[in-house]
Amino acid sequence: MAAEAEEYESVLCVKPAVLVYRLPPRASNRGYRAAEWQLDQPAWSGRMRITAKGSTAFIKLEDKSSGELFAQAPVEQFPGIAVEGVTDSSRYFVIRIEDGNGRRAFIGVGFVDRGDAFDFNVALQDHFKWVRQQSELARQAQDLEQGPKLDLGFKEGQTIKLNIAVRAFPS
User: Fold this and answer.
1) Nearest-angstrom CA–CA distance, 96 and 111
2) Under 8 Å between Cβ of 69 and 51
3) pTM above the 0.90 mark?
C-alpha cells in the first residue's frame, strides 16, 4: 500500500511568472548575490510548478503557453543544496536543475512579486514538514507494534457492577 501511495504526483504550487538567470562564476563561498546576475536581462521566463511524488519535490520550469518542460530540479531535502536563497534579496533563489542523464547545473530563479517568492518557499517547507510527520508517524506505529500489547479484557471470575438510574417520565 505504501508503494501505491507514492505513485501519484500532487501539485503543491503554481506560479505563472518566473524569471531564469545565468549565474556568473562564484567568487567566494559567501553565497550568491542577485545583484550580480544582470537582473534586467533574464535568460528565460515562464511558469513554475512545484510538484511532489513521494518524499521528493520537483521544481518544474515550463513554457507559459505550451507547457513544455524547460528544466526540472528534484528537491530531496529543504533547505539543502537543490534550493538556496540569495544573500541580498528574498525574491531570488539558486536552484540545481538536472536532466535525465545525471548532468546538473545551477541557475538563478527570480519572482516579480515578493508574495510569489514567499509562496514558493512555504510550499517547499510545508512539503518537507509533511514528509517529516509521515516518517515520525511510521516510526511511532512501528514502536507500538513492537511494544507490549494492552489487555483490556476481563480476567477469569472478574465482574463489574453498573448502576443505572431509571427516571420516571411525567405523564
Assistant:
1) 17
2) no
3) no
